[in-house]
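hi! just following up on the protien thing from before. the input was this:
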Amino acid sequence: MNSKFKEVRELIDSSNSIILTTHVVPDGDAIGSVIAFAEYLRLKGKSPVIINHSNTPHNLKFLDKNNEIKIFSENETENAELIEKADMVIILDTNEFSRTKSMEPFLKNSRAVKICIDHHTGLKPESYTAYISNTDYPSNCSILYDYMMDDNDKYISEKVASALYIGIMTDTGSFRYPRTDENVFLMCADLIKKGADPVSLYENVYATTTLDNLRLAARFIESLEFYNDEKVVVGTVSQKDFRELNLNIDHVEGFSSMIMNIESVRLGVILVELKDNIKLSFRSKGEIKVNELAAEFEGGGHKNASGANVKNTTIPDLKNEILKKINKYLD
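and the predicted 3d structure came back as:
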C-alpha cells in the first residue's frame, strides 16, 4: 500500500464535510478529477461539495449533468461559509492556492484539513496537512485511478470511470503526449471495462464545434506569427474577438494542439486577453522545457505544457517580452 495513499485515506475516513476544488480555467483533467473524486467520496458515504473559481468549459459540462459544481463568485457568502465549516478541503490538479484565484484567501484561512492531489512541479508540502504528489503521472486522473484502486475498485463506478477517462485522454493529448506509456493504456482499458465509453466521451469533448467556434479559430489562425525559422509560433485571442463573436475563454480549447501540429514548430505560445489579465499557454516538443519559461512569468506546469497569468500589461508588450526570453529555451 502506498503510504501517501494510506495517510490521505485515513484523513478522509475521519472527515465528512469535504470541499473539492481545482485550478482557474479548468481543463478535462481538472473537471474529470473533481467529478470523479466527488462521486468516489459519495460512494464512501461522505458529503462532498465542488466549488470552483471558473465556469466549466462548454465541452465538459456533460460530465456535470446535475450541475453539482458551484461557482464561487455566484454566491460568495454561501460558498465562503461552506469552506469555513468544512472538515476538509481537497485541491486537485494544482498545488498552488493562487491558482484558485478568488477562493485563495478563504482556502488558506480555513481551519479544515487541507489535502493536495496533484501531478505538477512546485508543491510546497508545508501548505498541506497531507498530499499525494507525483510528477511522473501524465494526468491527475491517473493518480486518482491508482488511489481508488488501492482503496477498492468497487468505488470506480461508471460515472467515476468516465470522468477519469476524460482526464487521462485530454491530459495526454488523446494519447500522443510524452509519458503516454503502457500503464496509460492499461488504466484506460480497465476504465472502459468499468463503463467508460471511449467513442461517446471523445465526441462529447471534441465534436462540439460551432460556427462561431470556427470563426474564432479562423481569427486565431490569422493572428499566427512565426519566428526562428518557423520553429516558434505565437497566436493571440483578444477581448475584441470574444466580444464580437459572443464567446469566451472556454472556446479556445484545442488551439494549442492546432499550432503544435505544424511540422516545423517546436515551441508554441498562445496569449488570450481576459478582462483582468492575459492568460499564457506554452507548448513544446522534445526537450524544450516550457515549464521553466512559464516560471519566468510566475506560472508553471509540465515540461511540454505550461501556463501563466500576467496582469498589468498588453498583448504586444507581453509578446515582445516572451520573444526576448525564448532563444535560451530553444538552445
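The chain has 13 helices and twelve strands.
The first strand starts at residue 17 and ends at 21.
cheers
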